[in-house]
Every structure is written in C-alpha cells, then in structure tokens.
Amino acid sequence: MNATAGAIATYNFAYLDEQTKRMIRRAILKGIAIPGYQVPFASREMPMPYGWGTGGVQVTASILGPDDTLKVIDQGADDTTNAISIRKFFQKTAGVATTTRTGDATVIQTRHRIPETPLKSGQVLVYQVPIPEPLRFLEPRETETRKMHALEEYGLMHVKLYEDIARNGHIATTYAYPVKVEGRYVMDPSPTPKFDNPKMHMSPALQLFGAGREKRIYAIPPFTRVVSLDFEDHPFTVQDFGRPCALCGAEHVYLDEVILDDAGGRMFICSDTDHCEERREAGHAGEMLAGEAAQ
Amino acid sequence: MSEAEHLAGGLADPVFDAQSAFRAVMAAMAEPGTVHAPGRLAGPPAPLSAVAATILTTLCDADTPVWLDPALAASEAVTAWIAFHAGSPVTANPVEAHFAFVTDPAAMPAFDGFGLGSHEYPDRSTTIVLQVAGFDGGEPLTLAGPGIETTRTFAPSPMPRNFTTQWAANQARFPRGVDLVLAGPDAVACLPRYTRLVPTED
Fold first, then answer.
1. Strand pairing partners for A268?
2. Which helix (H) or strand (E) holds B82?
3. What one-character DSSP code corresponds to residue B24?
4. Among A36, A157, A168, B186, which one is most buried in terms of CB atoms within 10 A?
5. Are residues A267 and A241 in contact, defined by beta-carbon separation less than 8 angstroms?
6. Is A291 considered catalytic here?
C-alpha cells in the first residue's frame, strides 16, 4: 500500500506486511529486554531458501526505514553471492541506500563476521543465525534446553568444552563459541569465528540475531557484558594468524586463506573486504602488493 | 461523540510512521533512560496521549490483548479508537495483557499484578506504557546495567507509587518481569526489566 517510488508497487515497503512487522518488532523489544534469551517468533516464508539468511532478512525488514543506509556482508565480504542478493533484495523492496563502508551504514546485516572497523553508537548489527540454541547439539529436545536455560543449568556446556581439552589439549571450538550474556543466558553468537567474540563485549552498537528456520530472535543491547566461556587454567583466546594481510598488511585481523596455484602457493588476506580496501586506499600495502609494485 | 469520530486520528502514513516510532522505542529500549522522539504522532481522543497512541498503533494488533487503566477503559471514545485503529482485544485481567496503557501512573496497580512471564518463557510478560508529563521534573533515577556504559540519570514524573521498591523487586525477578515504556508529551524512554537503580549521588 505504501511502496516508495521505484520499489515494486505490489509489495509493502521492505517486503513484509505490517502485521508481520509488528509481530517481529514486539519480539525484538522482548529480546532487547531479556539479553541473550531466544524469543520465539512466527517466522515467515521468505522469497529465498532457509539457510540464506531468512531470519536476518526478516529482522532487517522490520527495522529498516527510508533513512537507513544498509550494508550486507557474508563472511566479511560485501561482494559474495549471499551479500549481493540480500542487498539487491532490499534495494528492490525498500529502495534504501546501500553502502559497503562500515562507518557509513546504519544497519549492517551480517553472515558470520563482525566488521573489523569498530561499530558506533546508533548502528544496528543484524546477524543471520542458523542454529540459535547453543545447547542443541548437546541436548536435542527443545523442552529440555528451555528448562536448562530457565534453571541456568549450563554444566553440560562446560563439560563439552572440557572434553575438547581432554581430547585436544585446548578448547578446539573455533566458531559459534558460546558466550554468557550479562551473567545470565548462555548464547550462540551464530557461527562467527571466535576471533569476533571480544567485539561483542560492551559494543556501542545494538546487536540483533534472527534465526528464520528455527523461529527465534535474540539481542544484545549496547554496552552489555558478553563473556566467552572458558576455564581458569584454559582461558579463552582468539586465533592468531602470525602474519599480516597479504594485500593491506593489517595485523590482528581475521584472515582468509586464498590458494594461488596447484604448487602450494597461497596467501592470507583480510576476510573483511571493506576494511582491506580502506586500508589499501590509505596507502597500506601487504607483501603481495609490495611485490607487484617492485616488479 | 459522533459515530465517525473514532475513525480519525490514526497514523497519517501507517507504514513509515510506525517504522519511525518503532525505531524510537527500540533505541529507547536498547539504551534505558535515553529519550527519543517517535516522529509524526497519532491523534487519539483524550485521555490517551498522542505518544501512547502512536506506540499502541505501532505495536498492538488483534494478536495482543491490552489492559487499559480505569480512565481509559471508561472512555468510550478511546475504546472505539483502539478497536478501529489496532483491533486489539481489551482485557480486564492485567495478567493476560501483552500491553498495558496507564494514564495515571500514581494510581496504577502494582507491577506484580501484570503478566511477568515464566522462567521458561520470560517473554510472555506485559509491557506497560506509562503516560508521563516529562523526563526531567521528577525524582532523579540513576540507572545502570546493559545499554548504559557507566550510569545514566533521568527524572521522569509522575511515576508509580513506591517506584524504587517496586522496581527493585521487578529487577530481582529477572529474567521474569515487566518492561516499562514511558510516553512523554513528545518522546519515549524505556526501562527494561534488567535496568538496575543505583542510589543517586548528590
């Protein structure tokens, strides 16, 4: 009824109908009021398959307005299939401005990464979540996991981490690493690498999580304590790649391995494409670029 | 009242006005004690305030039973307006209300008379919308907890009786409890259940 100019006339703004938006908006407010608790919601069929971010898309569609600037990333990259198709979806159905610059975005929908550029107050980070229940692979019954959350009974999660240590000598969980939110709920941060866990702690930005197939929404308000589970003698640590990005020379960022040939040649580059581009524009160069310049 | 009176005063542009109102409430809920303007407001019959009515049409519909305080429930114009613009069933039982609307916070029932949710489903609780006169004229409240980097002070008024005692009990119930949305004359602020009150330093 209210499609903006240029949007598809037969769809409502941002695709979802208003009653669905109200239902999701109520779930988002409850999620914010109970940080880390998974609020059930009546997830809708979206014009993309489950696993392509339908939960995140529904959350984004419910908060997005004509003044927003949207950024969509997939594993840190703005230019991969999932990111491009979701960005185009909202360009088409909401007509909103889009960007790849982390600093310019008001709403950032992400699949499995938190941008390297620190987020600001007022920004909203929307995560696409496949399995919202951190206890699901330890206890398949929803009735039981719900009771475990109610009773704050998280011993099983510590046993799981302990078994990691017993088998591997260290906590071998590297992604979807469980966190405790504000000392109460154990939460799955979605399959982000554990490298990103510390960025969730006391973030000035609002973090919203949407799981479409599993029909759950949860949230972390700004400036909330988010602590990765660990043991006194096996404290939580993040990955260290031991080398800078091959393109922009950034250190202490999350790197992707890129295979260069079939003779073992490879390089490690920033997973956050925007961060890498901005650094290169600012004149930083990693060993691959420096090598090219020398030739 | 004339028969068509309740047809007027809805959101002028339901899609975009509701979106900007929701973003104001979301920002206020995420950072307790901050004050946000919801944008263009609805024009409801008194004693329902414009901001409270905007929140009502933004968040309530046929799926959400609402509880109205005696002043609102007694107004036929208000109940007709809510029925037309939101279609929400009005409940006399505050425990089953998803939203409660209160014009006179000083005379409202205690928080524990509303829906508090269960330990398994703490989200099944009542969100109480209080109409307040402003955010700086009352007893200063110093807030701490998620959404607040250190502490934040604001002074909404009027507030419910024995507010600090009632709120401490509500906060101690976490994750169960009610959430408050304070509807001022032209802006909203929120007190979600996790927000702690700390003694104000003089």
1. A257
2. helix B76-85
3. H
4. A36
5. no
6. no
Tell me the domains of chain B and their CATH numbers: 3-193 (3.40.50.11310)
Interchain proximity A224–B19, CB inside 8 Å: no
A64 to chain B: which residues are within 8 Å by CB? Answer: 19
Beta strands across the sheet bearing A69-74: A39-40, A216-220, A206-211, A124-128, A107-111, A69-74, A97-98
Query: In terms of CA atoms, which chain A residue is nearest residue B24?
Result: A63
Place of tokens 């091959």: A246
Number of A to B CB contacts under 8 A, please give it: 117
Q: Is the dihedral of CA A220, A221, A222, A225 positive or negative?
A: negative
* Contact at CB, B120 and A147, closer than 8 angstroms: yes
ipTM over 0.85: yes
Q: What residue type is assigned to position A182 of the chain? A: E
B chain contacts of residue A151, beta-carbon cutoff 8 Å: 119
Chain A hits for B194, CB-CB cut-off 8 Å, are 33-35, 182
CB contact under 8 A, A25 and B22: yes
Q: Which of A55, A76, A248, A286 is catalytic?
A: A248
Which residues 6+ apart lie within 8 Å of A13 measured at CB?
A2, A3, A4, A7, A66, A93, A94, B15, B16, B19
Which chain A residue shows the shortest CA-CA distance from B122? A34
Estimate the crossing angle of helix B50-59 against helix A18-33, to 10 degrees.
110
| Beta strand segments in B11-137, E | 66-68, 90-91, 99-102, 127-131
> In DSSP terms, which residues pair with A227 in a beta bridge?
A180
Average pLDDT over residues A263-272: 93
Question: Is the pLDDT at A5 greater than 70, yes or no?
Answer: no
Distance from CA of A85 to the nearest CA of B (A): 24
Closest among A53, A61, A69 to A17, alpha carbons compared: A61
Q: Taking CB atoms and an 8 Å limit, are A18 and B14 in contact across chains?
A: yes
pLDDT band at A277 (very low <50, low <70, confident <90, very high): very high
Nearest of B54, B162, B48, B156 to residue B102 by alpha carbon: B48
Asked if the Cβ–Cβ distance from B30 to A184 is below 8 Å, we say: no
Model confidence, pTM: 0.94
Q: Delineate the domains of chain A, giving CATH numbers in brackets.
A: 18-228 (3.40.50.11310), 255-294 (no CATH)
Residue A150, burial from CB neighbour count under 10 angstroms (0-12, 13-18, 19+)? middle
- Intervals of chain B under pLDDT 50: none
